[in-house]
Amino acid sequence: MQDYTKVSVLVVGAGPAGLAAAMTAKRLNPDAEVCVIDKAAGPGNHNLSGAVLEAKALAKLLDPIDPAWRDSDDAKAVLTATVDKDDVMFFCGQKRAFKILPMLKLAGKMKLAFGQMIHENDYICSVSKLTAWLCKLAAAAGVEVLHGFAAEDILWDSAAHRAVGVKLVDQGLNKEGHKEHNYQAGETITADAVILAEGCDGLLSEKFIQKAGLVRQGNQLYSIGVKELIRVSDEQYAKFTPGRVVHAMGWPLWTPVIGPAMFGGGIMYPMGDNHIAVGMIVGLDFKYCDFNPQDALTLFKEHAFVKPFIDGGTVTEAGAKMIPEGGLYAMPRCPETGAIGRGNVMLVGDSAGFVNMLKIKGLHNAIESGIAAGTAAADNLDAPLGLAGVYTRLLDGTGVLKELETAKNFRQTVAKFGPLQGMPLSVLGGWLPRYKIEPDYETMTTARYRLRPAVRFDKDTFTAVAATEHREEQPGHLTILDGNLCMEKCVGKFGAPCVTFCPAGVYERIGDQPKAANPSNCLHCKTCQRKCPFDNIRWTAPEPTGGPRYKTM
Length: 553
Ligand code: SF4
Ligand code: SF4
What we know:
alpha+beta; single chain; FAD/NAD(P)-binding domain; Alpha-Beta Plaits; 29% helix
């Protein structure tokens, strides 16, 4: 490609959804100039997930490119195993664990929506590795994949109802925002079609939703996932078995008798080479002002079922990321047409919110949404104003939206009634009404989380193994909008929760005043933007290449 500042199809975000879109657009329209930009330093560096991936979506993407893709060395290295031991469990206190898979299988036989929470024969993979592989395939197919390109805004023409392109971040400003000798104004990339694939709570995606007047039927609900990759002994890995995945609800997030009650659970996935990924996912509608999801991860690792597999192991990598859990009701749509986008802009993957919380998975839908967006773009570049509508109709034909329909009340019901009552009630599925749920940041209370690990979580080590870095001498990319509000309303009542829940220790109280003191530690998880109880934090894009450098997350 001669000039990346003027392209036919621009994809923002080189994750599985964005790359699926780009590869499909290029395959179907080889003359189109297809470009993917990503703020990370390298392929997969900002991608984190469990991950368990339904095989069908990947085959749909790759079969038309190379029917023998499964035999490649890369495929074998990335798709480490298929699930042959699916341990869906309930942890009842710190010692006991019950398998609930048989109940889910029964639910499946009875055609209840809960039967979806089964992972047998899915691929087990690291999404950073999957992304790096897809980047390689996309580049080989003629897609321009550019890392180190951070976008700060979408240029929306409200009269024409179309995006002109995107504006990249300025580089070379000092902490005070003054130009240094190497200052470089962020370029504008113009495009006929724009596909927003930034992941959860994307900066451009949320700006686009506002500028283009898209609406959600219900608030998006988020969770945070914190994850560690642990190298264990040969014996421990063999005992765990390479085809086993564990999803465990219950302790330490909730117990049937005493609470505390939070939605979420722990995961364990084998990652090959004697590594086990261990993670904790917690709904951001938690109410405890002193809660740190990493402490819950520590408690999970101490559970009698988990500990024997990882005891004495070494944490080799770690990271954190938000997950959009609101499902179909939280999907941003054009109010007039129902399109998931508007004009020549399409939202795909986590930017739109394709996670199915009844499956605890979204990667397959992210890839499907990317294929649909890429197909729409490839075939309709001469009439880009109708792209979002074409994309949504194509998605309708894939079954993705039907699948999400089956789960549409699940997360909202749990948010409304709490996991103790909400989980059983949600069995009623489509019979339930659409509950109006407050945004996550409004759920904070003065209640304290009663469980404590013996040793508080070490955030410094966590960020070190996440390998996160930013140029120190740049304007802070995290803004506390009103410092007085922190002092007058938050510190006394809630004790400045941002200091506790930020997984990277970015926030500190200096004197007593909460500040974003360590922005260079930031993992780009966006939790602070969605969980500050006064909606008092804004995340903006730092200079490109800043952030974590995940390899096997
Ligand atoms: Fe509280 Fe938000 Fe201020 Fe942090 S930034 S002290 S969470 S109001
Ligand atoms: Fe996540 Fe915000 Fe902390 Fe960065 S500062 S790691 S976005 S919670």
